[in-house]
Design goal:
The chain has ten helices and 17 strands. With about 375 residues, the protein is an alpha/beta fold. The strands form three sheets. Strands 1-2-4-3-5-17-6-15 form an eight-stranded mixed sheet. Strands 7, 9, 10, 12, 13, 14 and 16 form a seven-stranded mixed sheet that branches. β9 and β10 form a beta hairpin. α3 crosses α10, α6 runs antiparallel to α7 and α8 crosses α10. It is elongated and about 80 Å long.
Length: about 375
Amino acid sequence: MENLTAVRHYLHQNPEISQQEYNTQKYILSLLEPLKPDRLEKVANTGIIACFYGTAPGKNILLRADTDALPIQETNTDLSYNSKTAGVSHKCGHDGHTTIMYGVAGHYARQRPETGNVYLLFQPAEENGWGARNVADDSFFKSLDVDMVFALHNLPGFKKNKIVCKTGSFTSSVVSLAAYFKGYTAHAAEPWNGKNPAAAMSSFMLQTLELNMENKPEYITITPVYMEMGERAYGVSAGEGSVHLTIRADNNQRLNDTIAKAKTIATTLAQQEGLQVTFEMIEPFESNQNHPDAVAIIHDAAGENQLEYENLYEGFRFGEDFGVFTNLFPGAMFGVGSGENCKPLHHPEYDYPDEITETGIKMFIEIQRKAQ
């Protein structure tokens, strides 16, 4: 554990944002190469897959850890391993996830799985939603015969080392929708000679917020995140602007239906105001749909490790791109409690607790064994 903690602290000191994890990849490779996995490949530009082949045929299990940090300035003052990169820090605990997976690799280096192959994915770019997609499109990943997939996330607000999971939607289906309204400018003294998008933008905002729905565990959550219109030219009536919304739902179909409704609202308003409207989809995340068989394996693995287990009623509202994999293969994501009183994820003072690393390692090893 002392070695693993040192690894985690090094990663914390040297964070890199999504799709820029070049030094992180280099460091992880330097840790994995001495372990002599049966296959070690770079994937999706800054990711890695380490393969450990079983001594007998069985189910092939993919275990995933994410490696990227966030564009957040760390404000902790009591750490001996503060981030060395201004404006970037590991405030989602991916430094801990990576360390856990390195510990799993160490286990299989000493003792290959009894049955089935284990594929350890060190995945980049989870935070912007592109990492899993890029891995799924990678030719080496496509060559793997994957039977089931598993991942974990550290969870502030839950007792340390408690395992939390549920069948069905574990994390939200999320996308940011930008609606761009375009008319044309006029003199501010004669706004009727132009096409100002202000009325359409305001109505679009208000009408889309009416699509919010709470029928737990089902939900639609629409959050306005950004608006811009015109220029700081006070003699000019604005001619264009945009509204950016984050839309999330408990499953992919509900999200897609809501996006379609939002686009219809924007299109109707644009037509009424004589405007053009175009759309952009930003940072999409598919919902993690946990398979019941995979959840049963996680439950049993927690019991084998004598860990407290909580079956959640409602999934989490944040996005997690592991949903790409759970929509391709049977599998599940679970949580490991980080402490009931610690800072929340993405808080500038959040720090992953090293006490849960061993729990994550033991869970993954037992999950692979019970999946056979």
